[in-house]
Amino acid sequence: MRVALGVTGGVAAYKAAELVRLLQDKGVEVQVVMTRSAREFVTPLTFAALSGRKVITELFGGGEPNLESAIEHIAVAQSIDALVIAPATADIIARIAHGIADDFLTTLVLASTVPLIVAPAMNVNMWENTATQQNLQTLRRRGAQVIDPDEGYLACGMTGSGRLASVESIARVILETLGFREDLQGETVLVTAGRTEEPLDAVRYLGNRSSGKMGYALAEACRRRGARVLLVTGPTSLEAPCGVVVERVRTAEEMAEKVQNHLSETSVVLMAAAVADFRPTEVRPGKIKKQQGPLTLRLEPTRDILSEIAGRRRPEQIVVGFAAETDHLVENAAAKLLSKRLDLVIANDVTQEGAGFETDTNIVTILFADGRRKPLERMSKLDVAHRLLDEVVELRKALGVRPSLAG
User: Fold this and answer.
1) What residue spans in the chain does CATH classification 3.40.50.10300 cover?
2) Range(s) for CATH 3.40.50.1950 in the chain?
3) Which residue stretches of 35-97 are H helix?
4) Which of 24-28, 142-146, 252-256, 300-304 has the lowest mean pLDDT?
5) Catalytic residue IDs
């Protein structure tokens, strides 16, 4: 996850440095954008050292104009998940409310379609001024989230509203907007992801088209909601989410062993990996040459990891399976739910557009052990992950399990 943090010219600008640290502690990347006035209070070097990234201070790069600097605001707008302005002065609030784009930050606001979060900080009279309040109402009507300032002693010597809200409360709003919650705090979640590859000879294997995107989205969602996450992943080109414990495997046998090794320490098991059902009975030591054909392969079943989990699971454990089908979606998924003794099955028809392999979206139906079915519309795999975790949290509550004691 990545946010852009706009820092404007006010005494509270120094507090934005602590906000950067709090967000980074949660694995959020921060791109700092500073106005000219902000640089009168804090140097860009401070934020560059904290964020590990170049701080953007000028619309055209501060040097000889070039194409890269001219479109940088578009590149940033397309790479972030939220835009935050903290502290936000009365001036910046007025400019973005009226659609003015005369520096990098105001131009970025117009170019962005992500959630906008504004944390004002100013003199009490400026805060209470009708113009400021009307500008804030304009931003709220457009969907911006305004974090009202605190009351107290202000830098100008006056007392009243206008002091920047605590960085902890600002960070909490940002993280909630990004999907971070604490409802899995204390849980240890085991997620399997990706495909398995069953060797045929020294260079070939039997596999499938799974990209691992659904499993990795689950791992990311679990981490955002406070869980300790163990990710057992087959081969994939994806980068593992920050803060997740990763175990890399290749074959179904290796995945089964890793899952069994971690089963006793987990409270929730999410089996999203596309595990091969069969493997060659013989693995040739060298490369099979075409001239040796025609070739007949003998296959044997791989270990049934879900069935093994069902045989060892504790009463308070939640086990979720996935069913990627090409026909009879609900019937096949329901049979899997029953035979494997699962709590939930997430079924998707991989022949549907937007629900197949290697896509960023999914269309699924959640099947429950009590017979309920909940179809979901097409959405991102991260959103699917959160909808699934909503159900997992409710199941944990129904079991009467306190997260702090889970696992």
Assistant:
1) 188-405
2) 2-177
3) 44-51, 67-70, 72-79, 90-97
4) 24-28
5) 156
Residue-wise pLDDT for 74-92, tens only, equals: 889 889 999 999 999 999 9
pLDDT mean across residues, the chain: 91
Listing DSSP states for 263-298 in one string gives GGG-SEEEE--B--SEEES---SSPPPGGG-S----
pLDDT score for 405: 35
Contacts (Cβ under 8 Å, ≥6 apart) of 142: 116
Long-range pairs of 276-279 with CB within 8 A, sequence gap ≥ 24: 276/195, 276/196, 276/197, 276/198, 276/206, 276/207, 276/208, 276/251, 276/252, 276/302, 277/301, 277/302, 278/198, 278/206, 278/302, 279/198, 279/199, 279/206, 279/251, 279/252
Q: Per-residue DSSP letters for 363-384? A: --EEEETTS-EEE--SEEHHHH
Range in 132-146, 154-168, 360-374 the model is least confident about: 154-168
Rg (CA), the chain: 26
Read off the pLDDT band of 156 (50, 70, 90): low
Q: Are strands 365-368 and 344-349 parallel, antiparallel or unpaired?
A: antiparallel
pLDDT-derived band at 61, boundaries 50, 70, 90: low
Residue 272 pLDDT > 50, yes or no? yes
Closest by Cα among 236, 228, 176 to 208? 236
The answer on pLDDT for 72 being more than 90 is no
**CB atoms inside a 10 Å sphere around CB 398:** 8
Distance CA 231, CA 383 (A): 19
The model scores a pTM over 0.85: no
Euclidean distance between CA atoms 223 and 218, whole angstroms? 9
Q: Which CATH superfamily is domain 188-405 in?
A: CoaB-like (3.40.50.10300)
CB atoms within 10 A of CB 127: 20
Size (the chain), residues: 407
Q: If you ran DSSP here, which 8-state letter would residue 12 be given? A: G
CATH superfamily of this structure's domain 2-177: Flavin prenyltransferase-like (3.40.50.1950)
